[in-house]
Design a protein that fits this description.
Length: 400
């Protein structure tokens, strides 16, 4: 319920992408928001006010002269208790109107008449040529200069059959953007490099050694850091998770590949913090076979030999210009003792301890922070909540 108590005025303008707004409305409601839908006449050609009213649970307004508002001023009354106005889809024409201050229908008048403290977010949706047109690009630049948040658009297949920039973001991505717009930007201008998930160390082309890490904690931290305004690079071992919106993900398999990707990222761009959440395999199979190992007779068992993998976190922490390093400790017992010892051994300012087998694959976790002053419990919560708390901690420590 990350939008609990929020009122969103959701404006629809003309575009095929209107069909996706039914789903956005539903997910805003599930996240706890109250949704007040306002539609232009063009939008009603694509989806009906009946559908939008049924899904939002609130009367839909389309007309500036709607007498159902007691003082007949819907352009004022509909936004005065709003927390944000979201225009999705936002057509080429509506962007032009916003950029030039037009007010010739209810939705454009309502946008112009909004008090300055109410954020306005738009999700452009149009044909690629319409998006690339210099007139549209001039309007986009003007809207950004006017502090209007432009969400997307994305590139891809379009309803008209052409391909390119101009697709509206998907409803889940818009929801993420809207939630992020309410978060404090404690990591604005900062770059974070995060490792997540397990690594997979091959035995042969069809078998390997891995662990039970799902990647959920690392991915939640990547999402929370993006929401807090950071540029995030996520180096991920094999997981079943979707790429977090706004985050650059580099997929790897082995610990050596993860190490190489971390070092390449650090050499390409300096990073403010390195958060090592991955459950990296300590050993790889030194005598891995290029061909599938066959079972030749019943008593025959392959003899595996192991070599140590690079300790990515310790090696990053030892760099002369090391970013602020945050480690994770997945222990099975004695967390307080092992956590403090591990932080000192890896020579890092902050270590986050958890009991590995109680959290791998689960949606909640219990974290303990270890620093030079001792330890502090973040308590038990779902991984997204803990990720938000941890990101605030990292932000305050980077600022010092
Ligand atoms: N880590 C790493 N590279 C490795 C091993 C661990 O970057 N080869 C990082 C993990 O991402 C984590 C921290 O080091 O942030 C601690 O990982 P953990 O497996 O708990 O500790 P180990 O150093 O492997 O110690 P042990 O397995 O003996 O507890």
């Amino acid at each position: 319920m990350r939008l609990a108590g929020k009122k969103i005025v959701l404006g629809l303008t003309g575009g095929v992408a209107c069909y996706k707004i039914a789903e956005l409305t539903r997910s805003l409601g599930k996240a706890g928001a109250t949704v007040q839908v306002v539609m232009t006449q063009a939008a009603t050609q694509f989806i009906t006010p009946v559908t939008m009213q049924a899904i939002s649970g609130n009367t839909v307004f389309t007309d500036q002269w709607d007498a159902r508002i007691h003082n007949n001023m819907p352009h004022i009354d509909l936004t005065r208790d709003a927390d944000a106005i979201v225009i999705a889809p936002c057509s080429t024409n509506f962007m032009f109107k916003l950029a030039h201050g037009a007010c010739d229908d209810l939705l454009s008048t309502l946008c112009i008449a909004r008090p300055a403290h109410i954020p306005l977010l738009i999700a452009p949706a149009m044909n690629v040529e319409m998006w690339q047109n210099p007139a549209t690009q001039r309007n986009v630049a003007q809207l950004k200069a006017d502090n209007i948040r432009v969400m997307g658009p994305a590139a891809g297949d379009q309803a008209c059959g052409e391909t390119g920039m101009g697709r509206m973001l998907e409803p889940a991505q818009l929801l993420t953007e809207i939630i992020a717009s309410f978060q404090a930007k404690s990591l604005a201008g900062k770059r974070l490099l995060i490792t997540a998930g397990p690594t997979f160390e091959p035995i042969d082309p069809v078998r390997g050694i891995t662990n039970l890490s799902s990647g959920k904690m690392g991915y939640a931290i990547a999402e929370a850091a993006w929401e807090a305004g950071a540029q995030v690079t996520l180096i991920s071992g094999p997981t079943a998770l979707a790429q977090p919106y706004g985050v650059q993900r580099i997929e790897v398999q082995t610990a050596q590949q993860m190490y190489d990707a971390v070092m390449t990222s650090l050499n390409t761009k300096s990073q403010d913090a390195f958060v090592a959440v991955a459950a990296v395999a300590d050993w790889r199979v030194a005598n891995a076979s290029n061909q599938k190992i066959k079972k030749t007779c019943d008593s025959d068992t392959p003899q595996l030999e192991f070599a140590q993998n690079p300790d990515i976190l310790a090696l990053v922490a030892a760099l002369p210009d090391a970013p602020y390093c945050v480690g994770f400790a997945a222990e099975s017992e004695n967390l307080l003792q092992y956590g403090a010892a591990k932080r000192a051994k890896k020579n890092i300012p902050l270590l986050v301890g958890n009991i590995g087998h109680q959290t791998f694959g689960k949606d909640d976790n219990e974290l303990i922070l270890f620093d030079v002053h001792g330890h502090q419990a973040l308590g038990r919560a779902d991984k997204k909540t803990l990720a938000g708390k941890l990101v605030s901690e990292i932000a305050s420590r980077i600022k010092k």
